[in-house]
C-alpha cells in the first residue's frame, strides 16, 4: 500500500518537474520583446475593457498609446483626466485636460406621453426592432425601450424604468465611455458636458418631423416652434429640421428656455425647485425629470 | 406535347425546403376590378435602386398613365399616375415600415386615361418591336419585378457584354402560402401573359422558355400547356410543391439543375427569370401602351369574410382593399403585406399598395403571436431545411455575439431570408431575425472594406 | 373601420410549423413505449419500479436544481427530463436497487445536464453520463442481469444470468462457434429473450420505435443507419477473417445495447452533430469504437462509451463539417 503512495507521489512530482522545465524552455525560446511601459500603462488604466477609447480593450489602448508620438488623439473616458495624467507621466508627455461628460437620454416618450399604437412581437433587441419598423409608438425617432443601451453598459450606469419604458442614467456611475451611444440604433443617447452638481438642461427629443406630426405622436416631443431659440441669451440653441438642440458648452444653465417650451420637451435636471412665476410648470417638469433620473 | 408528366418525375430543388400549409383561400376567386379610391398616395421609391424624382407639382391635373416621377440612373424606374385627378401635394406617405417616405398624393377625379393608352380589351398578338425597343418601352413603362422583389425589369433584360443567355424562366410558382394573384393571372390573362413572355423572349434573344408552376395549381398547368402546345421552344413544367421554390435560384435549380454561384446572378448560369405578373405588365406596356399603374393583389385571411383577388390601382390605401374584401374582421391581430413567409407586417392600414404588393394577409389574433422561446436543442432542423445550405443556428449565434467576420465566412450573405429556419425551429428561436441583423452588419462591413 | 386596433408587428415569417420542443420530446417517449412494454412483459415488476424511480427522480432533480440552485424558471414540462429518465432506466438492469437509480438520476441530471446550463448546452448525453457513472461505481449491481422470465413480481431477487456479450467476453479462449451453442437464437435476440439491460434487448420493439421516430420526423435516419452499418461492416470483416475468433455481424447488431444506443442515445439532438455528412462520420465512429471495445477491450459492451467518446467530437464535427452550400461548388462565369 505504502509503495503505491510513494510511486504515485514520485511519478506525479516527476511529471510536474518535467512540465515545468518544458514550459520554462518554451517561455525562453518564444519570448517576444515588449515595451515594459505597456504593462505600466495598463496598470494605471481602469481595466474595464469597455472599448470607450475606441480600442478593443485596455491592453490594446496601452499598446497604441505607447507607440504613439502624440497623446492628443487618446482619451480614456472611464479613467478621465486623472488616468490620462498618469499615462502621460509614464510616457513623459503632456496632455490637455478634457471636459468630463455624461450620457443623456434624449427621449421622454414614456408609455403615457407617447402611447403605443402597435405591438412589437420579436426578439427584445432595439437593433432588430429598428430594422423592422418605426417602433411601437407613432414617433419614428423614439426610444424603442428594449434596452440595448443597458446591455451595452459595463458600469451599471443605465437602467430601464419599468414605469416609463425609457432608460435612465445613474450619473455618478456613468463614465461616458460611449458604449450606450454606440448601441442605440436611434442615436437618442448623447454624451454631454457634465455640469456642476450634475445639473442638466437638454432637449429630450430627437424627432425631426414637422410639429403637427410630432404632436400627434407624442405629448412631449419638440415641435420646432423656436421659442427657446429666441429666448436664449447665449445663442446656445439651434433649430434644425424642426428640432431644437442646446449646445452643452454654450449653455449657461439659465433655464429660460425651459420656461417657454410649450411641450415641456426641454428638461432641467438637478436644480433646486423654482419659486414664484413658473412654479406650476416647473413642478410638472420636475416630476418628469424624476422619472428620468 | 409534354402532357405525359408523371407525378414521381416532378422536378424540384434539392436542398432544404419546407411545406407550410398552403391556405390558398382565394384560389378560385376571379380577379375583380376594385373601385377607384378617393385619394391615392404613390411613393416615388417603389423599386430597388435610386428613388425617382417627382415631375409634377401641387394642383397639377394628371390623367391615369401620365408620368409623375422620372427614373434616376440605370437601376431605377419611372412612376406613373394610376388615376386621373389633381395632385393634392408632393408630400410623404407611410411605407410598410412605418417611416414616412416621399410620395405624390393625388385626389381622384373621374377616370380619364392618357390618350395614348389602348383601354379596349382586344388582344393584340402581332409583335412589331425590335428587342431594343422592347427594353426601352419596359423602362419607360416603369415595370419592376412583380413577384415582390421590385427589381427594375429593364435591367434584367439588358444583358451585359460577355454574358450569354440561353433560357428564359417564367416564374409561376407562387410558393408563398395564401397568395393567389399569379395563379389568377395565369388562368384569366393567359394569352396576354404569354404574349408578354414572347416579348421578353424576343428582347433577350433566347430560344427556350421554361414556365415553372407548382403542382397545386393543376388548372393553371393544364390551361397554359394547352396554349403553348403549338409554340416553338416553350415548355410548361409542373413542380413539386415546396417552399421556397419561387426563389430565383431554387427555381433555376429545379428546372435546369444549374446552381447560381454564391453571390452571383441567374445571368451567370445563362438564365433570366421573370414573374408571370411581370410578363402581363410587359404585354400591357408594349401592346396596349399602358404603363404599370395597376396590379393584381390577393386580399386574404382565415377570418376575412370574402377573400378576393383585386385589380388595384397603385397607391390605393390597404384599408380600401380590406373593406372590399368584407371589412376588417373583429379578431384581427396582424396584417401582412405579402405572404406569410416573407411578407412584412404593417403597422397601419393607410399604407398604399405599391408595385411589389402581391397580397394583403389578415392574420387573426390567435395566430398573430410567437410562441415562447426555448433553448436551442441543437436538433439541426434549421440546417436541414435551409435551401442555401447554411447553418442558421450558427449564424444566429454569431450575429448575436456581433462576430460579423465569422458570419461572413459562414456565407451569411447567401441567405435570402426565406424564413424556412424560423418556420421549422421547434424551440422557436428567432433565427432569421438575428441573421437579418447579422446581414445588415456584414454588408456594412463589406461596404467599408470596399471604400478602403 | 376600426383604426384604433393595436396591430401586432413582428419580423417574418408569420407562420410556424406545428412542432415544438415539447412535441419532439413526447415523440421520443411514444417511440420508447414498445420497448418499455416489452420489458415489463419480460422482466415484470422490476422494470416498472426501475423506470418509475428513474423518471420521477430525474424530473424531481431537474425541478429542484432549476428552482433552488440555479434560480431559473423550471422547464421540466418540456419533457427532456422525462426522456432522460426513461433512457437511464433502459440502460440499467431491471433489478437495480432504488437507491442506486436515484444516484444515477442525480448524476445524469445534475452533472450531465444542469451543470452545463440545462437543455441544449450539455456536451454529453445525460442518461449515458448517469449510466457510465453507475457502471464504474457499482459494477456488480450494474452487471447482474436478470433473465427475462415473463411478467413476475420478483424485483431485487430476480434470477440473474450473463448477457450474450458477457459470455463472449468471459470465455474468450473458447472458439466462438462452440460458444454459440450457449447463446440465445437469433430469433431470441430479435424478440428480446436474453439477459440484458431493461430496455435494450428487444430488437423488434426498438425498431418499431425507430419507425415511430422517423414517422413523427423526430430524427433523421442517418445516425442509426450509419452506426449499425459500420458495426455490421467492421464485425463482418473480422468475422470473415477468422470465424472461430469473432462473432458474426448479426450477433453483434442484435445483442447488447447497440440498437438502443444507435436509435435513441446517439440521436440525442443536443449531443449529435448538425449536418448529415457529420452524422455519418459520427455514426461510423460510434460503430467502430463499439466494436473495438467489445472485441478488444475488457468491457463486454461498449456502446455507452463509444457514444460518449463521439459526443466529445461533436463540436469539432460541427466546426469543420459544413453543409454543402448552394452555389459554392460552381465556377463563376
Describe it:
- The complex is a heterotrimer of chains A (293), B (452) and C (333).
- Chain A is α+β, with helices and mostly antiparallel strands.
- Chain A is built from 11 helices and 9 strands.
- The model of chain A is unreliable at 281-293 (pLDDT under 50).
- Chain B is α/β, with parallel strands linked by helices and 452 residues long.
- Chain B contains 13 helices and 17 strands.
- In chain B, a hairpin with an 8-residue loop joins strand 5 (67-70) and strand 6 (79-80).
- In chain B, helix 3 runs parallel beside helix 5, helix 4 (190-204) packs across helix 7 and helix 10 (392-400) packs across helix 13 (431-451).
- Chain C is an all-alpha fold and 333 residues long.
- Chain C has 15 helices and 3 strands.
- Chain C has a two-stranded antiparallel sheet.
- The mean pLDDT of chain C is 87.
- The chains are: A alpha+beta (293), B alpha/beta (452), C mainly alpha (333).
- Chains in contact: A-B, A-C, B-C.
Write a brief structural summary.
The complex is a heterotrimer of chains A (293), B (452) and C (333). With 293 residues, chain A is α+β, with helices and mostly antiparallel strands.
Question: What distinguishing features does this structure have?
Answer:
heterotrimer, B: 452 residues, alpha/beta, Rossmann fold, Ubiquitin-like (UB roll), 3 domains, 6-stranded mixed sheet, 4-stranded antiparallel sheet, disordered N terminus, C: 333 residues, mainly alpha, two-stranded antiparallel sheet, 15 helices, 3 strands, 57% helix
Q: Would you spell out the secondary-structure blueprint of this structure?
A:
The complex is a heterotrimer of chains A (293), B (452) and C (333).
Chain A lengths: L1 H28 L6 H9 L13 H10 L12 H12 L9 E5 L12 E3 L5 H7 L15 H5 L5 E4 L4 E4 L9 H5 L5 E5 L6 E4 L7 H7 L9 H5 L5 E4 L2 E4 L9 H5 L5 E4 L9 H14 L1
Antiparallel strand pairs in A: 1-5, 3-4, 6-9, 7-8
Helix pairs in contact in A: 2-3, 2-4
Chain B lengths: L30 E3 L5 E5 L9 E2 L6 E2 L4 E4 L8 E2 L4 E10 L5 E9 L22 H10 L12 H5 L9 E6 L8 H8 L1 H15 L3 E7 L3 H11 L5 E6 L8 H9 L14 E5 H12 L6 E7 L7 E6 L4 H7 L7 E6 L6 E2 L13 E6 L16 H5 L6 H9 L3 H6 L10 H5 L6 H21 L1
Parallel strand pairs in B: 1-14, 9-10, 9-12, 10-11, 13-17
Antiparallel strand pairs in B: 2-8, 3-5, 4-7, 5-6, 7-8, 13-14, 15-16, 15-17
Helix pairs in contact in B: 1-4, 3-5, 4-7, 10-13
Chain C lengths: L6 E3 L11 H23 L1 H25 L10 H11 L7 H14 L14 H12 L1 H4 L2 E2 L13 E2 L2 H7 L5 H4 L6 H5 L12 H13 L6 H20 L7 H6 L3 H8 L10 H21 L6 H18 L13
Antiparallel strand pairs in C: 2-3
Helix pairs in contact in C: 1-2, 1-3, 1-10, 2-3, 2-4, 3-4, 3-5, 4-5, 5-15, 10-13, 11-13, 11-14, 14-15
Amino acid at each position: 500500500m505504502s509503495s503505491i503512495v510513494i510511486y504515485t507521489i514520485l511519478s506525479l512530482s516527476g511529471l510536474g518537474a518535467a512540465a515545468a522545465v518544458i514550459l520554462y524552455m518554451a517561455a525562453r525560446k518564444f519570448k517576444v520583446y515588449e515595451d515594459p511601459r505597456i504593462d505600466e500603462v495598463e496598470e494605471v488604466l481602469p481595466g474595464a475593457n469597455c472599448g470607450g477609447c475606441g480600442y478593443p480593450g485596455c491592453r490594446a489602448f496601452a499598446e497604441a498609446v505607447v507607440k504613439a508620438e502624440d497623446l492628443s488623439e487618446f482619451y480614456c473616458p472611464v479613467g478621465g483626466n486623472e488616468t490620462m495624467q498618469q499615462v502621460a507621466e509614464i510616457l513623459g508627455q503632456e496632455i490637455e485636460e478634457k471636459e468630463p461628460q455624461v450620457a443623456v437620454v434624449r427621449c421622454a416618450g414614456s408609455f403615457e406621453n407617447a402611447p403605443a399604437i402597435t405591438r412589437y412581437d420579436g426578439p427584445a433587441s432595439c437593433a432588430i426592432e429598428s430594422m423592422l419598423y418605426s417602433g411601437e409608438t407613432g414617433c419614428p425617432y423614439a426610444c424603442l425601450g428594449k434596452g440595448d443601451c443597458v446591455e451595452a453598459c459595463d458600469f451599471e450606469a443605465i437602467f430601464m424604468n419599468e414605469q416609463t419604458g425609457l432608460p435612465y442614467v445613474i450619473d455618478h456611475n456613468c463614465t461616458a465611455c460611449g458604449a450606450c451611444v454606440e448601441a442605440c440604433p436611434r442615436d437618442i443617447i448623447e454624451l454631454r458636458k457634465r455640469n456642476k452638481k450634475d445639473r442638466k438642461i437638454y432637449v429630450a427629443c430627437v424627432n425631426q418631423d414637422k410639429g403637427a406630426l410630432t404632436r400627434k405622436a407624442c405629448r412631449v416631443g419638440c415641435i420646432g416652434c423656436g421659442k427657446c431659440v429666441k429666448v436664449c441669451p447665449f445663442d446656445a440653441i439651434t433649430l434644425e429640421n424642426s428640432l431644437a438642440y442646446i449646445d452643452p458648452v454654450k449653455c449657461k444653465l439659465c433655464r429660460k428656455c425651459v420656461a417657454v417650451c410649450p411641450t415641456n420637451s426641454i428638461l432641467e435636471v438637478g436644480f433646486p425647485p423654482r419659486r414664484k412665476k413658473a412654479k406650476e410648470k416647473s413642478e410638472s417638469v420636475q416630476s418628469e425629470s424624476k422619472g428620468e433620473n | 406535347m409534354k402532357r405525359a408528366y408523371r407525378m414521381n418525375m416532378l422536378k424540384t430543388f434539392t436542398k432544404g425546403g419546407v411545406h407550410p400549409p398552403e391556405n390558398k383561400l382565394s384560389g378560385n376567386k376571379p380577379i375583380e376590378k376594385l373601385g377607384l379610391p378617393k385619394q391615392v398616395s404613390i411613393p416615388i421609391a417603389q423599386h430597388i435602386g435610386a428613388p425617382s424624382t417627382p415631375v409634377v407639382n401641387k394642383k397639377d391635373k394628371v390623367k391615369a398613365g401620365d408620368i409623375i416621377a422620372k427614373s434616376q440612373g440605370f437601376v431605377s424606374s419611372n412612376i406613373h399616375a394610376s388615376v386621373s385627378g389633381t395632385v393634392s401635394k408632393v408630400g410623404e406617405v407611410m411605407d410598410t415600415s412605418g417611416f414616412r417616405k416621399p410620395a405624390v398624393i393625388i385626389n381622384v377625379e373621374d377616370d380619364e386615361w392618357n390618350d395614348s393608352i389602348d383601354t379596349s380589351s382586344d388582344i393584340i398578338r402581332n409583335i412589331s418591336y425590335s428587342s431594343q425597343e422592347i427594353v426601352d418601352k419596359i423602362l419607360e413603362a416603369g415595370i419592376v419585378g412583380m413577384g415582390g422583389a421590385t427589381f427594375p425589369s429593364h435591367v434584367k433584360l439588358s444583358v451585359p457584354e460577355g454574358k450569354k443567355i440561353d433560357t428564359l424562366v417564367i416564374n409561376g410558382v407562387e410558393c408563398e402560402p395564401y397568395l393567389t394573384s399569379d395563379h389568377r393571372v395565369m388562368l384569366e390573362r393567359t394569352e396576354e401573359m404569354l404574349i408578354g413572355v414572347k416579348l421578353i423572349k424576343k428582347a433577350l434573344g433566347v430560344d427556350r422558355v421554361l414556365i415553372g408552376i407548382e403542382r397545386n395549381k393543376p388548372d393553371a398547368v393544364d390551361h397554359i400547356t394547352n396554349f403553348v402546345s403549338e409554340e416553338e421552344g416553350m415548355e410548361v413544367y409542373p413542380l413539386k410543391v415546396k417552399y421556397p421554390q419561387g426563389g430565383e435560384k431554387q427555381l433555376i435549380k429545379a428546372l435546369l439543375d444549374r446552381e447560381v454561384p454564391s453571390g452571383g446572378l441567374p445571368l451567370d448560369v445563362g438564365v433570366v427569370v421573370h414573374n408571370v405578373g411581370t410578363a402581363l405588365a410587359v404585354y400591357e406596356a408594349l401592346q396596349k401602351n399602358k404603363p404599370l399603374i395597376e396590379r393584381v393583389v390577393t386580399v386574404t385571411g382565415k377570418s376575412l369574410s370574402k377573400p378576393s383577388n383585386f385589380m388595384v390601382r397603385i397607391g390605393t390605401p390597404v384599408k380600401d382593399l380590406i373593406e372590399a374584401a368584407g371589412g376588417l374582421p373583429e379578431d384581427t391581430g396582424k396584417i401582412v403585406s405579402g405572404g406569410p413567409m416573407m411578407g412584412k407586417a404593417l403597422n397601419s392600414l393607410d399604407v398604399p399598395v405599391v408595385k411589389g404588393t402581391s397580397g394583403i394577409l389578415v392574420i387573426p389574433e390567435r395566430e398573430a403571436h410567437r410562441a415562447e422561446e426555448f433553448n436551442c436543442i441543437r436538433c439541426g432542423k434549421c440546417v436541414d431545411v435551409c435551401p442555401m445550405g447554411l447553418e442558421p443556428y450558427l449564424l444566429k449565434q454569431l450575429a448575436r455575439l456581433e462576430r460579423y467576420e465569422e458570419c461572413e465566412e459562414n456565407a451569411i450573405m447567401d441567405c435570402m431570408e426565406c424564413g424556412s429556419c424560423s418556420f421549422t425551429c421547434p424551440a422557436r428561436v428567432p433565427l432569421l431575425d438575428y441573421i437579418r441583423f447579422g446581414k445588415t452588419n456584414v454588408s456594412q462591413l463589406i461596404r467599408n472594406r470596399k471604400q478602403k | 373601420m376600426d383604426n384604433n386596433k393595436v396591430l401586432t408587428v413582428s419580423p417574418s415569417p408569420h407562420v410556424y410549423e406545428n412542432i415544438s420542443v415539447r412535441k419532439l420530446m413526447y415523440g421520443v417517449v411514444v417511440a420508447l413505449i414498445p420497448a418499455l412494454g416489452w420489458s415489463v412483459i419480460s422482466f415484470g415488476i422490476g422494470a416498472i419500479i426501475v423506470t418509475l424511480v428513474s423518471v420521477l427522480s430525474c424530473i424531481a432533480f431537474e425541478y429542484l436544481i432549476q428552482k433552488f440552485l440555479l434560480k431559473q424558471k423550471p422547464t421540466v414540462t418540456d419533457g427532456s427530463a422525462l426522456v432522460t429518465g426513461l433512457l437511464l432506466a433502459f440502460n440499467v438492469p431491471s433489478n437495480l436497487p432504488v437507491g442506486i437509480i436515484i444516484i444515477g438520476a442525480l448524476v445524469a441530471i445534475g452533472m450531465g445536464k444542469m451543470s452545463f446550463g440545462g437543455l441544449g448546452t450539455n456536451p454529453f448525453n445525460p442518461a449515458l453520463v448517469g449510466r457510465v457513472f453507475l457502471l464504474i461505481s457499482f459494477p456488480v449491481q450494474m452487471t447482474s442481469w436478470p433473465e427475462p422470465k415473463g411478467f413476475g413480481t420478483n424485483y431485487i431477487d430476480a434470477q440473474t444470468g450473463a448477457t450474450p456479450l458477457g459470455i463472449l467476453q468471459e470465455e474468450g479462449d473458447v472458439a466462438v462457434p462452440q460458444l454459440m451453442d450457449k447463446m440465445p437464437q437469433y430469433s431470441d435476440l430479435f424478440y428480446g429473450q436474453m439477459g440484458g439491460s431493461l430496455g435494450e434487448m428487444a430488437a423488434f420493439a426498438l425498431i418499431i420505435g425507430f419507425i415511430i421516430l422517423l414517422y413523427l420526423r423526430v430524427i433523421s435516419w442517418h445516425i442509426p443507419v450509419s452506426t449499425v452499418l459500420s458495426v455490421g461492416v467492421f464485425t463482418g470483416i473480422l468475422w470473415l477473417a477468422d470465424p472461430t475468433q469473432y462473432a458474426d455481424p448479426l450477433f453483434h447488431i442484435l445483442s447488447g445495447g447497440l440498437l438502443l444506443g444507435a436509435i435513441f442515445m446517439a440521436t440525442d439532438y443536443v449531443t449529435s452533430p448538425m449536418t448529415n455528412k457529420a452524422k455519418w462520420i459520427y455514426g461510423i465512429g460510434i460503430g467502430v469504437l463499439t466494436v473495438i471495445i467489445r472485441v478488444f477491450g475488457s468491457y463486454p459492451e461498449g456502446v455507452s462509451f463509444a457514444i460518449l467518446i463521439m459526443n466529445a467530437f461533436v463540436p469539432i464535427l460541427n466546426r469543420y463539417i459544413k453543409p454543402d452550400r448552394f452555389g459554392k461548388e460552381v465556377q463563376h462565369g
